Amino acid sequence: xxxxxxxxxxxxxxxxxxxxxxxxxxxxxxxxxxxxxxxxxxxxxxxxxxxxxxxxxxxxxxxxxxxxxxxxxxxxxxxxxxxxxxxxxxxxxxxxxxxxxxxxxxxxxxxxxxxxxxxxxxxxxxxxxxxxxxxxxxxxxxxxxxxxxxxxxxxxxxxxxxxxxxxxxxxxxxxxxxxxxxxxxxxxxxxxxxxxxxxxxxxxxxxxxxxxxxxxxxxxxxxxxxxxxxxxxxxxxxxxxxxxxxxxxxxxxxxxxxxxxxxxxxxxxxxxxxxxxxxxxxxxxxxxxxxxxxxxxxxxxxxxxxxxxxxxxxxxxxxxxxxxxxxxxxxxxxxxxxxxxxxxxxxxxxxxxxxxxxxxxxxxxxxxxx
Length: 370
Ligand code: NAD
Ligand code: GLY
Known about the structure:
The chain is built from twelve helices and eleven strands. A hairpin with a 2-residue loop joins strand 10 (340-345) and strand 11 (348-352). The chain folds into two domains: 11-181, Rossmann fold (3-Layer(aba) Sandwich); 184-366, Dehydroquinate synthase-like - alpha domain (Dehydroquinate synthase-like, alpha domain, Up-down Bundle). The chain has helices spanning 55-66, 87-99, 114-126, 140-146, 184-201, 203-217, 221-241, 256-266, 273-290, 296-308, 320-327, 356-366, and strands at residues 11-15, 22-27, 45-51, 72-78, 107-112, 133-137, 151-156, 159-166, 171-175, 340-345, 348-352.
């Protein structure tokens, strides 16, 4: 499918991290434009890391955009899917880099969704102890969340994103035109991470999402442009204050403690990450209500919005014991105590532990009977 003409000029959000600062460019048609990559580092060679779904759609355009900047541009096509976000697939990136004789200036370009971005970023963090990388996210979820902020990782059979590094890209190029080829289920998954920013930080944005959810589901370009920009602005604000998640950044994991349990409990790839986060936010909202941060009207409002985004709001019947066991593996856990991101008032979030009995009540209320 041809990419739409570039929107001039692209919108720009900056991640302010001192010498690790970088721009996020947002606009339609950016991926095929050499000027979109002016801020990419200079080097002799580049490797585009993509997958068997995204590469046939967009690798040619990206390759053409990069051909004037790098003497050699190689393409690696990995198998597609969360189930491949593992050590074996990561090793294919190292095989390609070593096979091409790539030096430590080689620039990696992650072309695809969050799986490509997280794995390519981790490969960049560790190949020759660190080579530069650029994120070219092509899913809504990756454009509003995973490509920004430098969390890179692969999954381990015992826990999601358990092996990884904080490693910032040097540039993020969000081509909104790529969202037009996303399957509807993936659009909904991305909307979960957009919705997340409302309850944790910005209720005016939440009101806007509520008013525009149908336009977002229908991929209205103007609505998508605003949703991506505002999400990136909020993420930039949070990451700029707490790059390595010593405190504040944890709020970006609203819904993720329950969500990660759903993902690993069902087997990676069964539910999409965004679907698990959407349902996890419903559970976390119920827990917040029980802890006194929000009222039932707020929980209902959030649940309704998640439903309208096309996301599941009832959790799978894994059993409360299994949920608790899985949630103890979460990275926020301390000394075996599960720590949840809860809403302490609409538009503000905090990390809190909760009595198992309360969590069991929430699971009983929010999961299917099995
Ligand atoms: P994904 O990368 O699996 O992409 C979803 C699907 O859409 C894939 O099949 C992909 O090939 C396909 N696809 C991608 N772009 C397309 C396009 N433009 N047109 C058609 N198909 C396209 O999933 P995702 O939702 O983008 O990312 C989820 C991953 O991101 C999870 O592994 C999650 O843990 C991670 N994540 C990381 C962070 C972070 O901060 N690093 C944040 C949130 C999520
Ligand atoms: N997606 C959560 C974070 O970047 O911290």
